[in-house]
Amino acid sequence: MIAICDYDAGNIMSVQKACAFLGYEYTLTRDRETILSADHVILPGVGSFGDAMEKLDSYALIGVLKEVAKRNIPLLGICLGLQLLFQNSEESPGVDGLGLMPGSIIKIPDENGKRKIPHMGWNSLSFPVKGRLFEGIEEGSEVYFVHSYYLPLTAEGAGMQKPEYLITAAADYGVEIGASIEKDNVFGCQFHPEKSGRRGLKILENFLKV
Q1: Engineered SS bond to 188: which of 159, 164, 181, 192, CB 3.0-4.6 Å?
Q2: What is the pLDDT of residues 124-179, one digit of tens each?
Q3: Has this prediction a pTM greater than 0.90?
Q4: Cross-strand partners of 149
Q5: What is the CATH number of the domain that holds 147?
Q6: Nearest to 104 by CA among 119, 86, 92
């Protein structure tokens, strides 16, 4: 059973449809015991960092998600869900993230209007370290992004002395975007696998087979 975390975030329906298309049983829930008994947990998200953390707190899901990671239940953060795994974001100063990953999410620079923000559309992936999500996915495969904030590709850019997780995919948008991460059984995709065609579905299926 897949538990999709219900905290009033956008884009949940497309995640549900993708899981159903792949033939997996899922439930949309904010119930602690249901989430902790799941085989896999997905944290989707479209919206703002601060609003999302406020809703996770109001539904008592912050501690639950930390327990998911502690129990080594496979957890996937999608788009904003990836960003929430980190300590904080420039989008919402003073707001703590889940802190499952060290470092900060920062705003994509617009280069005085030369770069369109948000980064929206298809972008190819490279694999600094090819992780488990990308088995069977070719270098240069395109996936769909919609975001204004991002994880820098370097540890220094994210405010760390050294990385404590693997950046398993990157995308070039004039800045090098950390497009996917992996640490133990916690994963994140800045792009939307559920909106990225057959390759995206393969990425999601790879997670569901962890």
Answers
A1: 181
A2: 999 998 899 999 999 999 999 999 999 998 654 444 444 568 899 999 999 999 99
A3: yes
A4: 107
A5: 3.40.50.880
A6: 86
Q: Which domain holds residue 124?
A: 2-91+104-208
* Among the listed residues 184, 185, 188, 183, the one whose alpha carbon sits nearest the alpha carbon of residue 147: 188
CB 88 within 8 A of CB 96: yes
Sheet containing strand 104-107, edge to edge, reads 88-89, 104-107, 149-150
Query: Where in the sequence numbering do the catalytic residues fall?
Result: 79, 192, 194
Q: Where are the alpha helices (DSSP H) in the chain?
A: 12-21, 32-36, 49-58, 62-70, 80-84, 197-208
Q: What are the start-end ranges of the H helices in 22-135? A: 32-36, 49-58, 62-70, 80-84
Rounded Cα–Cα distance for residues 79 and 134 (Å): 17
